[in-house]
Amino acid sequence: MEPLIVLVVVSLVLFIAGAAGVRRLRPWPIPLRGGLAAMFMLTGTVHFVYLRSDLVGMVPPILPYPGLIVTITGVLELAGAIGLLWRPTVLWAAGGLTLLLIAMFPANLYIALNGLATSPEDELIPRTLMQILFLSVSSAIWIYYLRHRSVRRYGKDFGQLRS
Description:
This protein is mostly helical. Helices cover 72% and strands 0% of the residues. The chain has one domain (2-154).
């Protein structure tokens, strides 16, 4: 539940700051980037401290080296969070985090379906709904910057190259 809270609270604070006059925060993807980055900083960090053993236990037994998998996904989450905050890497970071959310969903299914859930939000329905929200946010950011990059490169009607 903590990742959801961080995503919502940080995004709302940034949306409010934009509405209050902070111009750089006005376009809707900016607050979402901040909220998603904060969320992935949290989730990436717990891959190394506090919940590491729980996360290793979430890896389906069919996969080898669960500790290595948790370490790699933690590094990817932290790198993606940093990438969301730097404009030149937003497209790659949002796309990579979207793919990572898809790739990690089977672990969420595994814990929910095998009775390993330790809290109500780890049950199948709440976990799936949160994953859909996280995936929607990361996909929306990726699509926005993919389209924005195309518009900048090719002009509004995609017919004329801009210099």
